[in-house]
């Protein structure tokens, strides 16, 4: 029996991050990745800016720029390295990465396009249910294909393409509590 949901969600309105240079952020998200810049705000009293980029389906990635923001903390507030290149761990309450949903049939084309733009990317990761959780080939067990890269501020981005529909069998693990350790 379907459980009644307490709220009706329509996706992510926006995710708000902080950048060190709004101009470079616009050049990356609008000019390289092609996300339309749909709203710009100069904050009161010259305290910064807040810009919104459309990442599809009415969802946005937004950035604040604060002239006196603290420096980034890779390895704490975000991963210091991309997957396959070192530790991908970040602190509790941090944002580890943003996975942007792309069409599965365009995955390889988009991967090459990132490389052609000079963006450093990971190898393609075909995530599956094997012990290593990655397949060199796209098999029937692969559920998502991924490539990871950083934006100019070290925000870890992922292009992700679902390759299967999920069912009840895909929810097969009990959550772990710190008390269980």
From TrEMBL:
InterPro entries per UniProt: Glyas_Bleomycin-R_OHBP_Dase, Glyas_Fos-R_dOase_dom, GlyoxalaseI/FosfomycinResist, VOC_core
Coiled coil spans: none
Alphabetical list of PROSITE patterns matching this protein: VOC
PANTHER family named among the record's database cross-references: GLYOXALASE FAMILY PROTEIN (PTHR21366), METALLOTHIOL TRANSFERASE FOSB (PTHR21366:SF31)
Protein name, as recorded: Uncharacterized protein
Organism encoding this protein: Hyphomonas pacifica
Phylogenetic placement of the source organism: Bacteria, Pseudomonadati, Pseudomonadota, Alphaproteobacteria, Hyphomonadales
